[in-house]
Write a structure and sequence with these properties.
alpha+beta; Aminoglycoside 3'-phosphotransferase, Chain: A, domain 2; five-stranded antiparallel β-sheet
Amino acid sequence: MSASDAANPRQTLDARGLETYLGARIEGMRAPLAIGRLSGGQSNPTYRLTDATGRSYVLRKRPAGKLLPSAHAVDREYRVISALYAVGFPVPRSYLLCEDDSVIGTAFYVMDFVAGRTFWEQSLPGIHRTGRAAIWDVMNRVLAQLHAIDYRAIGLADFGRSGNYFERQVARWSKQYRASETERIEAMDNLIAWLPGHIPEGDETCVVHGDFRLDNFIFHPTESRILAVLDWELSTLGHPLADLAYLAMSWHIPSTAFRGIAGLDHAALGIPTERDYVAAYCRRTGRELIPAAQWNFYIAYNLFRLAAILQGIAKRALEGTAAGAQAIETGKRARPLAELGWAKVEHILARGA
């Protein structure tokens, strides 16, 4: 049998060839394979493979077609989760990386399927107030755990460059945005011009996830515990506060736009304030509280970065290579997020921060 995305027939797997290839390399895997597309991802197409014994695996592959340079790096995902799994960080066990395009058309890797809960709405509807607090807290704790790992000791010393992280990232995402630009967004032009000259002093290096958010976690079926952190495509060596501010963007994005929590009654929901959330991370990592001027930059930077990522999805949707069926609608959010990011900068300028 084969699996395909009805919205994009280019994303089709050769199941027979895959059975032969994996059966010879993953101990205990038995044909035939039942293959189903896992929904939700906008980047690397993701599939659930269930073998004849009932055991399930996940396959992540590069999309077909022309792609932006350095994008969809499944080899980097495979490398980082393999290293982190070895030291007990909550990621799926990985089995193999295949860079031979002749097997299914693009590079891919295979890891364990982790059963559990996935949440999409950051306000966590349907969860009890105390459960919401626990879920937000465990995300904070696991992020601090990630940033405390000695990347050199786990073989990731060359996983990225040390130093000047924000300078390099602003340049990278500016370039990526220009390569995928489909219409002029004045706010993005403004951010591209402003950000490089206002990077806070000081530098640190750790493994950063790059997309550390609620829907990239598998939670225990009944407990407020993270079983697996997923989607490591954007991971690298970088500044820990980039990850923290990316997670904290939720407090700046309205609930009607990209599932944010701005404007909600956080106390009633059991969700901490942004200030308390950042302070909790600082306690866990032994860090002093972050000055407001620096924090404002990190938030504006992440809104810019997310807008650039969404613009890339918009471009791929037009070209027919986007992985998710909702890619077109997702891509449309680039403009409002860029405008939100520039509004943050205007607020900084107005206060002289």
